[in-house]
């Protein structure tokens, strides 16, 4: 079986890590996500991962209580470091070789982000987990996925989230929303579809880096996309 992509950037939803819990990291959910990642790693595909933090803290939630936005965003980025460490450890337990690199320096805990080293790890078959988003407040981990995906020369960004693609409206709010099988960047940005933030869409469009949005809860979906099959929604130039 030959994969359609040699190197991918996988954006994993932080919120998905909760599974059926109200908060935090559900070990069974984490293990099932790692099994999906392993099915692709076993094909020899090089994998960079950006993980979100929505299961622990989002900057906007902090500002809702009066917190300074930048402070809240740094807390959100630290939440992604915790998720990255949990993911890396779950990978270790599954026999995968993961390396965490953080955009914020916490060198006693995880390595700093160094692009050349990340690429070398990928070439060695290690899975690189990019933590702390872009390292800057006022951004999201979707934008970090677009940025790191561009930096490492990924052929596609795969956004693994809680819905099975991009819809005409948020399917969790609008039961009449319909799913796109494919959509251009221009149309996705023009329709202001909230499944990814507009900075991430714009960066991927400029870099001609396609995005595939799919459900992380659907077994085998990640592997099907990597094998070149239709799954979720493809955002193209
Ligand atoms: N047009 C749309 N099509 C699909 N989903 C949409 C749309 N508009 C809004 N959404 C919502 O966007 C969510 C996914 O984006 P979001 O970045 O918030 O979550 P995430 O991938 O879980 O990331 P994290 O938890 O790490 O922040 C979906 O769960 C869905 O409810
Ligand atoms: O580059 C970034 C990435 C993230 N943040 C903050 O972290 C949280 C969690 O990330 P999600 O993408 O929402 O999962 C986010 O709400 C921001 O507060 C950031 O500031 N910069």
UniProtKB/TrEMBL annotation:
A single Gene Ontology CC term: cytosol
Catalyses which reaction(s): UMP + ATP = UDP + ADP
The protein's enzyme class: transferase
SUPFAM superfamilies per record: Carbamate kinase-like
Binding positions for UMP per the UniProt entry: 53, 73, 134-141
E.C. number(s) listed in UniProt: 2.7.4.22
GO terms, biological process: 'de novo' CTP biosynthetic process; UDP biosynthetic process
Database matches in Gene3D superfamilies: Acetylglutamate kinase-like
Domain Aspartate/glutamate/uridylate kinase: 7-214
Keywords associated with the record: ATP-binding, Cytoplasm, Kinase, Nucleotide-binding, Pyrimidine biosynthesis, Transferase
Pathway it works in: Pyrimidine metabolism; CTP biosynthesis via de novo pathway; UDP from UMP (UMPK route): step 1/1
Regulation: Inhibited by UTP.
Binding positions (ATP): 11-14, 54, 58, 161, 167, 170
Localization per record: Cytoplasm
MF terms (GO), sorted A to Z: ATP binding; UMP kinase activity
HAMAP family xref list: PyrH_B
Family statement: Belongs to the UMP kinase family.
Complex formation: Homohexamer.
Job description of the protein: Catalyzes the reversible phosphorylation of UMP to UDP.
Descriptive protein name: Uridylate kinase
Species name: Denitratisoma oestradiolicum
Phylogenetic classification of the source organism: Bacteria, Pseudomonadati, Pseudomonadota, Betaproteobacteria, Nitrosomonadales
């Amino acid at each position: 079986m030959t994969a359609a992509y040699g190197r991918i950037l996988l954006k994993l939803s932080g919120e998905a890590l909760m599974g059926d819990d109200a908060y935090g990291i559900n070990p069974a959910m984490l293990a099932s996500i790692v099994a999906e990642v392993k099915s692709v790693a076993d094909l020899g595909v090089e994998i960079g991962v950006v993980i979100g933090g929505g299961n622990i803290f989002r900057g906007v939630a902090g500002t809702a209580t009066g917190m300074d936005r930048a402070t809240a965003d740094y807390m959100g980025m630290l939440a992604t470091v915790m998720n990255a460490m949990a993911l890396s450890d779950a990978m270790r337990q599954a026999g995968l070789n993961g390396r965490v690199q953080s955009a914020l320096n916490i060198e006693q805990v995880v390595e700093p982000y160094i692009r050349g080293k990340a690429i070398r790890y990928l070439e060695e078959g290690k899975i690189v987990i990019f933590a702390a988003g872009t390292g800057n407040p006022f951004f999201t981990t979707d934008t970090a996925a677009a940025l790191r995906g561009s930096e490492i020369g990924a052929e596609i960004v795969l956004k693994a989230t809680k819905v099975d693609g991009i819809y005409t409206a948020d399917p969790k709010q609008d039961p009449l929303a319909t799913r796109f099988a494919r959509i251009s960047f221009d149309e996705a940005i023009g329709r202001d579809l909230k499944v990814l933030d507009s900075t991430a869409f714009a960066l991927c469009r400029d870099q001609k880096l396609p995005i595939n949005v799919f459900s992380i809860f659907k077994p085998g979906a990640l592997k099907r996309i990597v094998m070149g099959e239709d799954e979720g929604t493809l955002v193209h130039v």
